[in-house]
Amino acid sequence: MPLSVMPTSSLADDPQPPAAISAVGLRKSYNDTLVLDGIDLRIPAGSVFALLGPNGAGKTTTVKILSTLISADEGQAQVAGHDIATSPQAVRATIGVTGQFSAVDGLITGEENMLLMADLHHLSRDEGRRIAAELLARFDLTDAAKKPASTYSGGMKRRLDIAMTLVGDPRIIFLDEPTTGLDPRSRHNTWNIIRELVADGVTVLLTTQHLDEADELADRIAVLNDGRIAAEGSPGELKRLVPGGHVRLRFTDPAAYRSAAPALPDAIRDDEALSLQIPSDGSQRELRTILDRLDSAGIEADELTVHTPDLDDVFFALTSTSGIPDQPKETAR
Q1: Average predicted confidence (pLDDT) for the chain
Q2: 246-308, what's its fold?
Q3: Which end of the chain is more exposed for a tag (fewer CB within 10 A), N or C?
Q4: Domain extents for the chain?
């Protein structure tokens, strides 16, 4: 039975924020291969929504459908209030798309790449040059603007790629695995760019196989598996789907350890390691309860460690048949 996050009920006078992207029942097959099996999405404006899933799960196909690059076999979707089937040109006028593979032309300079995009958006010569200069400066590419893009590093090419996407001032951006192949510094620079875009009110639909990336950036995450959404929620909600969270107390004094066990009756004892393991979701309330019980008994633990599932655990639980991981990650407190 798939894991799921139940929707939270809301008051009638507290409406949901407007949706930048909405989809119902999207299906897509290639020959006899079913890639999307009826997915529903609702992405609020001004947010980051991440699609996770293994290779072949349907992430890129979803982006291609919503950006009108291909058509769905069944289902309906709206982007910026425009129907993707009946008003594809209106959709294209409001979006920007950065694919897995760079659209940068390495034979021309960075500035020429930007001006080419300005021409495609039918901007005047002066307006195109102004916007190109502003975006090159914003993405720290001014010094390299006159150099052939083939001489750029991977991180510079990705920055140029995103800058080219922004020439038309899109309010919705599709980023399909934007940091694939980048070094850690370039990845973090790209994350900062995405955060800046969202701070300006841009909506971002992000596909990624980097779970830490989704955890860092996304307001909500949907996990795709076998063409269906296996679960959707905030990063915190998805982590709470996976059982196994607990608090571990370790003692160096055997007498303190023996006194602590009766004060925490739900704890699992490890007499050899002098440790107690208490089931917990890691919340502040539960931690306070545990510490209050120790204080009431006049006992102090030498080490307290909170073990919480992370998105790796969620991903493997949802996309494999091996079940819930045995050992959640731990964070020392």
Answers
A1: 87
A2: Alpha-Beta Plaits (3.30.70)
A3: N
A4: 19-104+152-239, 246-308
